[in-house]
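Morning F.,

Quick status update on the modeling queue. The single chain you submitted on Monday has been processed. Sequence for confirmation:
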Amino acid sequence: MSVEKERIPVPERSPEERVKDFDEVPLGYTPEQVIEEAERCLQCPKSPCVGGCPVEIDIPEFIEKIAEGEFVEALNILKKNNAIPAITGRVCPQEEQCEEVCVMGAQGDPINIGKLERFVADYARENGLEEPPIVEEKKEEKVAIIGTGPSGVTCAAELAKDGYRVTMFEALHEAGGVLKYGIPEFRLPNEVIDHELEYLGELDVDIKLNHIVGQNISLEELEEDFDAIYVATGAGAPRFLGLEGEDLKGIYSANEFLTRINLMKAYKFPEYDTPITDLGKVGVIGAGNVAMDAARSALRLGAESHILYRRTTEWSPAREEEVEHAQQEGVKFDCLKNPKRFIGDEDGWLKEIELLECELCEVDEGGRPSPELIEGTECKKEFDTAVIAVGQTPNKVFYENAEGVDVKHWGGIIIDEETRMTSKDGVFAGGDAVTGAATVILAMGDGRKAAENIKRYLED
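Structure tokens below.
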């Protein structure tokens, strides 16, 4: 029997329609389409896709169930290792992980694993078919988890399923961490996040909102009340460029810009209290996923949106899908450009960005050509708003108030790679708080590893 070499395309809303709102762009597979895509899987014995998955989902098994039309069984397989499949099916970079090593990719398109995962989770949710989790008998040991982002959620789910008493502490007024404040609804709808997090309630996980560990509750207080602690505070502090004029009005960090839009719902102002001023012409500095999110959000708020990037789109760290969506929607890409300074008007508002042209030179340690500034190519361009999207670091609020927890010079928490424990006994850490800003699925992988090590620690 011959196997289709090309993947089944996922229906999407047209660019002309979707730039008018913040509704989700991909529409997802139909049951017929998802079965057809699943039937392309070769079910190869060695299954390199499993090794390519940071949380080690049994990918061939869940795809086989989809091909048989057993969607709930497929979801149950996913849930063994992944507490939030509707989320990872949308934002995980499968093309760099499980799909990259898919054997089918050697003779055609790799299986569209992410979109299969998304379908299964959505289908079960929309049809009320999700089954309650099986939880072991309650244990006496209590674990505190600081942060409700993907790493914390994964660790919490793994521990709670085994009967440990888990309490999560979230600094913001809604749970979800970067999933809530960092990713726009056209990529990850809030209703999907909220529903996925209900799984923690089914596991009897207690979530305490508006609790900033290091400010209104100390790490020492948690140590008194809990047998182990997992620090999953993420990387929520913005990086800046250190350029002249960076303190002008109209210049945002991507963190603030996206938090205003996603968590505070500024795009619905005045229905919600947080405004976004008239953006005008926006320059987003950077070309990762966060930059694409900011540029596409600005576009939806009526701005003329530009990506200012010192390399070319070929070398953008953003997912290919996100770059394509931005281009389709009308985001302009000003490549081989690097800001030199920001220029304001007499009232202190941004009016221009002075840019230098770049050229690509030798390949750096990350495998990309290094951009070199070309002196004498300064050029001033009018911009009303700038968004700086050049990375994030761990927030100082926690680690500067966590005596005994060692950190690197840039704020990343130092852990033992084998035990995942920090320099403080019984305090573990993982995700972006350790690595700096990375992907959702890598943070989840850390959460699983931490849970296993916390269990060993508590059982010794």
